[in-house]
């Protein structure tokens, strides 16, 4: 059956029967084809085409109604959903071991913090966005993520309250690239997604620092003001000559939700582009895993579980599954207590099952001593995870002992 849909409702797997618009409005030489490549979807969503005809007999139909939001604390739902993500693993390729990439990633993290801090200061003084510097930074972040995405992602989660806004920009850039890579998006588009991540909160330049860094709860008026940062950011980006539409879109819509309860435009599911949906997930993950002036961040493994509970209504379910496969259910650096009575830190994800990562075992709880370090792939042993452990409880400097952040 032919069906006319908005371009924002388009998904890979649909059969495009006709693109509504002139041939100059889009980059394709044909107008009827099955949409298989996520890169083509990104190109179409950022072209001048507003509507397309799809044929549901030859491809997927529009998504059914988004299910109701699942209340927080429904762990059985979280477990079910994680188990599903866990066994559908297509591991993201890593070309350099974590320990080797960490030194390079640390340098990029520090350069990134400095570059974003300078960019904020310059734009605050009325200067133009230093786009050349931003593009060079995205290239470096992209290269590190391509070598081993866990290195930079582990390092950018370490922020202090003053660094937050700057390192959050670097973190969302790295997350967007890693997620896009997992989704099979091509390098040129990955860099655009990275640039969008880097600039998504540029509107915070226009927010009073006293409110941004307020240690307590925001008043209603203060919160209303903070909620204007996507529009303020979009206004700044529009001033920059030939700023890409995808970058503007992520800046304007990274606080939207698929159920329409976000801001500033209350766009509901189908009206949100792929890039904006990706931005929403990466932004929330980094925000809740970071220490803020008003609360300590959650450990990444707990953040993933929380996001599973929130995902319906808040996030795009398919992209969220890809995000879990990118980060892992027990992200790199997570401290685990094993059934064997040992402590271990996650160093990599397993090819087979995200619930059974590769870990570095280093401590015996029974004898309360450090033991010879050993890499163990939990998908290949009898030992299993008992629970997530907290380093503070054991008084251990895990980074110093294991070299894993
Ligand atoms: Fe934001
Ligand atoms: Fe953000």
Question: Descriptors for this entry?
Answer:
alpha+beta, about 400 residues, five-stranded antiparallel beta sheet, about 45% helix, 3 domains, Hypothetical protein af1432, four-stranded antiparallel beta sheet, globular, binds fe (ii) ion
What is the subunit organization of this protein?
Answer: single chain
At the third CATH level, what is the topology name of the largest domain? Answer: Hypothetical protein af1432
The level 1 CATH classification of the largest domain is Mainly Alpha
Percent range for β-strand residues: 5-15%
Chain-averaged pLDDT: 87
CATH superfamily of the largest domain: Hypothetical protein af1432
Bound molecules: fe (ii) ion
Shape: globular
Please give the number of β-strands. 9
Structural class, by secondary structure, is alpha+beta
Short description:
This protein is of the alpha+beta class and 405 residues long.
Walkthrough of the structure:
α3 (98-124) packs across α5, α4 (131-156) crosses α5 and α5 packs antiparallel against α6. This protein starts with a strand and ends with a helix. The longest helix has 27 residues, at 98-124. It folds into three domains: 2-55; 98-327, Hypothetical protein af1432 (Orthogonal Bundle), CATH 1.10.3210.10; 335-402, no CATH class. It has helices at residues 38-45, 75-87, 98-124, 131-156, 164-182, 187-199, 209-212, 220-226, 229-239, 245-253, 274-289, 300-314, 317-327, 391-394, 398-402, and strands spanning 2-6, 15-20, 33-34, 51-55, 335-338, 342-348, 358-364, 369-377, 385-388. It is built from 15 helices and nine strands. The strands form two sheets. The protein has a five-stranded antiparallel sheet with strand order 8-7-6-5-9. Strands 1-4-2-3 form a four-stranded antiparallel sheet, with no helix packed on it. The radius of gyration is 22 Å and the shape is globular. Helix content is 46%, strand content 12%. The chain is of the alpha+beta class and 405 residues long. The structure holds fe (ii) ion (FE2) (2 copies). The site of one fe (ii) ion (FE2) has 5 residues, from loops.
